[in-house]
Amino acid sequence: MVEITEESPERATPFCPVFGTCGGCQVQHLSYAAQLTWKSRLVRDALERIGGFASVQVAPTVGMDVPRAYRNKMALVVERPDNQIAFGFYQMRSHAFVPITACPVVLPQLDSEIGALAQAAGDPKLGPAFVGVKHVIARAGSSTGESVTALTTDQPSPRIASLASDLAKRLPGTKGISNSFSPQSANAILGRKQRQVWGQVEMEERIALPGGGHARYRVSAASFFQINSAMVERLFEKLAQLPRPASVLDLYCGAGTFSIWFALGGAQVTGIEENPAAVREAQTNASLNGVGERTKFLCGRVESVLARSDGRTALHADVAFLDPPRKGSDVKTLDALIAAGIPAIWYLSCNPATLARDLAHLRAGGYTLEETTPFDFFPQTGHVETLARVRRQDAA
Fold first, then answer.
1. Where in the sequence numbering do the catalytic residues fall?
2. pTM beyond cutoff 0.85
3. pLDDT reported for residue 82
């Protein structure tokens, strides 16, 4: 762009000084109301163009009251320009480093940690802890203020281990520090191995339930857990409006976010997740919420577990709840659900394109699309989460 000759009424003034350079946010220049409208259109266009759903109805995107300071996890890049340690993010689709001193879309305690890390790195006593560190990953609870932090290196770092207790005193709300090492590739943010060097592995987050009370979750810096706790509450409110299933198969269940929601509502739940650490967290979280007897978690790739005897037994459920990664589900999994005749499938997707593809496959298998509702889990970005519900045509 060279010049704006006439501004759109939907244009907004970006609130971050590095917007347009940092790759974290893409649409701060769009008013929030316009962002929500645009995201509904993204979902509708994908369903029509990729999925072949004609004149599909997409609900208005459910948004946040204040679309800032929402991310409960951040992954900082560590660089050393002019031999001085700096923290920041990458430019979009590149490894060009953008140094930052603050971030207005992460939770306040994580925003404070950015400055605390910079001060610690500049301290002659604590600076050696950052030798060889490539990334710093931190996760915080919006309701508790607790946080955990992981520092990623190629090899185990004795410096991090020896200085962790002093570093912890600098980080607001920290409950634990770990050394993540042996990354799978040069681009990996987390290592394949984790070594706890101070405090506890996990912090706690509490998410309000529509009927009162809270669901409690203990998660680590490396956990798969929804990035926006406030929007999980909005999604729980939506689920509370739907018929309560007696049995649920929760695929790609992560640390058990939705397994626990369904179990708290009285359902018998089987969750499947390939990450062993996430399965352990899901089991811990189920016990933490008093639903251990109503939940069972199976470890392995979803398509492989569903081929096992215990996985096939889990296919006898009222509802299958899917929350796959951006690449979507796979044909084997969808075919197993179709063959089992599960009456309803509730699909939570972070990628409209793969959602449309998978819903088209389910439609070919005898399912009807009943409802599609986008949720703005990622304000100021081009990402949108969508809950789609399909029902088997011959099911009550």
1. 350
2. yes
3. 85
